[in-house]
């Protein structure tokens, strides 16, 4: 697990870490009051240039951290939000993390992140949460896409907003803000069925990701609602073009295949390559829909029809809800599911019967 943050100490647990210099030590070394140090730290007026320079010099000399526990005690809050996120360069998690940081800056909060690794499960998430609490945060966003299928129970005394599955906290409020992946997969599948395809094959993502499970569920629901047969699934993909290519090579051998919904755009990209190599033209022979609307999607050959989820909107809503919780306001009792939209391009068309 990797963490980033600016504070080595916290009032949450005596003895957990070596205590750094406090505001009293800075004030004593600079020959000023603690109130003056506070004014310098917080950028307040009514401090002469000489005094400000002297205090800042002592802060640098003692390696005093302005945003540590002393500031939290003075201001009542850390003004910092922690994020638990999978340590991954995949488009979804990395984009969501960037948008969360921007949303926090918009509302005047700083940002700390604790990263998990695939395979750590609930224990890795719990360790990441504990790391953030030790740094000092007012609330936590759980932007963790992987679980082991069991309810997640955490120990935290600050509010938590999850961007996926619900979380159980004993001592603080929690809620869920997310893009509606089930509805999104239904929309993608219904689009293909609406074009006249008898059924739709699916390239699934890894089923320890709740997003992959949501998309699989939405695909199944759309087929059932339409009375369309449910084709067998290829092996689970891993979100990469290589896994989409492997699934596409297998699917390309099916003579009755006319439509495919891939659980993300990168796997759809791999499938497009496999269909081209097999002589199955897209969309003349096979229609393909992806998910995410990655920046490359409009420039593929052909341009990819895909479901667009607004990562920035999810991040903004999640941070607004969390800040309201931090400030003691009410929070949504039910999950907040944000709408997604289908972007239709040239990779889908009616089947050629």
TrEMBL record:
<keyword id="KW-0804">Transcription</keyword>
<dbReference type="Pfam" id="PF13377">
    <property type="entry name" value="Peripla_BP_3"/>
</dbReference>
<dbReference type="Pfam" id="PF00356">
    <property type="entry name" value="LacI"/>
</dbReference>
<feature type="domain" description="HTH lacI-type">
    <location>
        <begin position="21"/>
        <end position="75"/>
    </location>
</feature>
<keyword id="KW-0805">Transcription regulation</keyword>
<dbReference type="InterPro" id="IPR028082">
    <property type="entry name" value="Peripla_BP_I"/>
</dbReference>
<dbReference type="InterPro" id="IPR000843">
    <property type="entry name" value="HTH_LacI"/>
</dbReference>
<keyword id="KW-0238">DNA-binding</keyword>
<protein>
    <submittedName>
        <fullName>DNA-binding LacI/PurR family transcriptional regulator</fullName>
    </submittedName>
</protein>
<dbReference type="GO" id="GO:0003677">
    <property type="term" value="F:DNA binding"/>
</dbReference>
<dbReference type="InterPro" id="IPR046335">
    <property type="entry name" value="LacI/GalR-like_sensor"/>
</dbReference>
<dbReference type="InterPro" id="IPR010982">
    <property type="entry name" value="Lambda_DNA-bd_dom_sf"/>
</dbReference>
<feature type="region of interest" description="Disordered">
    <location>
        <begin position="1"/>
        <end position="21"/>
    </location>
</feature>
